[in-house]
Amino acid sequence: MQTKFPLSQINDPNIKDANDILRSCVHCGFCNSSCPTYLLMGDELDGPRGRIYLIKEMLENDRPASPVDVKHLDRCLGCLSCMTACPSGVNYMHLMEYGRRHIEQTYRRSFFERLVRNFLGVVLPNPKIFKFMLGLAVIFRGFKKFLPRNLRKTAHYVSNLKIQGKVVTPNRYMPISKHKYRVGMLTGCVQSQLNPEINKATIRLLNRHGCEVIVIEDVECCGALNLHLGQKAKAFKHIKSNVDAWCNEAERSKLDAIIVNTSGCGTTVKDYGHLLRDDEKYSQKAKNISLLSVDIIEFISRIGLRGTSIEEKLTVAYQAPCSLQHGQLIRDEPLELLKACGFEVVVPNHEDLCCGAAGTYHILQGKLSEELQTKKIKSLVECSPDIIATGNVGCMMQLKTSETNILSFPVVHTVELLDWGTGGPKPPSMN
Ligand code: SF4
Ligand code: SF4
Fold first, then answer.
1. Do 351 and 377 belong together in one domain?
2. Which end of the chain is less crowded, N or C, counting CB atoms within 10 A of the terminal residue's CB?
3. Same domain, yes or no, for 191 and 294?
4. Whose Cα sits closest to atom 8 in ligand 2?
């Protein structure tokens, strides 16, 4: 794609990067058929190629974002299915980030939108505030009918949640077999509060595989939630704090990996090196952290699954999170590990399409999110599974919050099944 950025703009490293990405696009449109919003809306501007043009036009003319730009870029899930489909290797993820930041810097949203986005950007990444809000949601569950529809669905889910077990606390969790690896672990902000069992299963699985697991006090949110809302300053604050905390820990004693069990967060941590590439103080440190970062599935595949023991014959429908399959290119490993545990694994139709969760998308774009959710649930039900497994707490929540399609199957994180399949307890949500 031809671009015409003036030299004065190209001196900005972000614009230079955006320019390089734009020039790699040959506007063939192959990406459109893989885009969930293009398939739903049938509008070029709701597909990746159209959005690339919108971002190009905005940045190249250095003009404020228009309501049309905002409408179509806001509708993007950030699922990155278009990156998998693109034959030219266009880095849509980075380009979209520049687009979102430009919108936040140049466009004044309505009062209500600003309120909701700021609320989400403050509450979700902060486990203490999030926990407090969970408590309020339970106390005031009777008032949820007064909320807008998008928020009502989420409020309904969290106020009826039976949170099982205590949250994992900062500590060193020692291996129960021969000590082989020392790994850091991201326990996550929303996940750690909504479903503590995922972190516990991860630690048990790692301990059983010879890993000492370090959970550090100062590491909480990975920054992805703020980043996707275009809130760069808030996101970078989390990112730098995490980089410092992990680098300090790695200086104390070598870390073999940083384990992430929420695939949306993993995609962002793997991108820290890129995000802080122009920061003199942080660029090398951030790069080192990105190189250490691995999804739990990737790590277990790498070191080899041991001690498989499941005896029940159960069919697992695997719902691939976009951030795992498109963002981190981890596709076959979850299926292979589940099979190695003795589960029969089935994959739903349209496995590459997003379930509509996409971070805060299910709250901000409720209608589109619900349409994708309905399609995803239908394809999973058609598999007639005993269990549904996925690798991201956002997808788990999305599959459980439908008001019209009530799933009768337990929805668990893949790591809970791997833990069970190698000698750990049965996931509590299956009892
Ligand atoms: S498939 Fe790639 S090169 Fe083709 S239009 Fe989409 S982003 Fe551009
Ligand atoms: S990230 Fe997903 S929703 Fe956005 S343009 Fe790409 S395929 Fe479409």
1. yes
2. C
3. yes
4. 35
